[in-house]
UniProtKB/TrEMBL annotation:
Lineage: Archaea, Candidatus Iainarchaeota, Candidatus Iainarchaeia, Candidatus Iainarchaeales, Candidatus Iainarchaeaceae
Coiled coil: none
Species in which this protein is naturally found: Candidatus Iainarchaeum sp
Pfam families cross-referenced by the UniProt entry: Sulfatase
Superkingdom per UniProt: Archaea
Residue ranges of every copy of the Sulfatase N-terminal domain listed in the record: 1-150
Protein name: Sulfatase N-terminal domain-containing protein
Amino acid sequence: MRADHLSVYGYERLTTPNIDAFASKAIVFDNAYSTSNWTLPSHTSIFSSQYPIIHNATTIETAISQDSVLLAEVLQENGFSNTAFTGGAFVTKEYGFARGFESFDDVHGLRAEEMFSNAINWVDSASDKKFFLFLHSVQPHDPYKKKQEIFEKEPYDIITDSKALELFERESSDQNLTAQQKLDLFNYSFTSERIFGKVEPL
């Protein structure tokens, strides 16, 4: 999702009301930079505050260096109860992400709906203590599929990153989009937007 097409960052159309609602109660970063363009090294950097050249988790054959101290380990030493729910995709026990977590649920392909349900139940049980909860869903990745119950009158189809980029560029240059293209563009943002719709109970 492009920042310049999110209403929370000033886009003129209300494209992401759920993300906007979440952002109103959270810290919003105007500038965010990733240490890598894929999951394993970038998430390891988030957890270790190290560049990939230091933590060494840079290929599918390499796990996080044992010399890297992770966020959950520091929090655990300071009395936090730590739990994670992930959909796999490299953020797994195998690569060393479970260090410092009392519970680390890394079910490959875990759907966001089930993940947030599990997280809400866990928060309810942990509300009387300091805790760190980490959620990682792979659902915002493509392909982006329309939910038939929402688009009942539209044919089921898939929109990829490249197609969405083409449509965003056409819209940004004030070119007219067909009704189907507008639906495709909406559907592209729908997956991430509906995930944030699940956050409110947390």
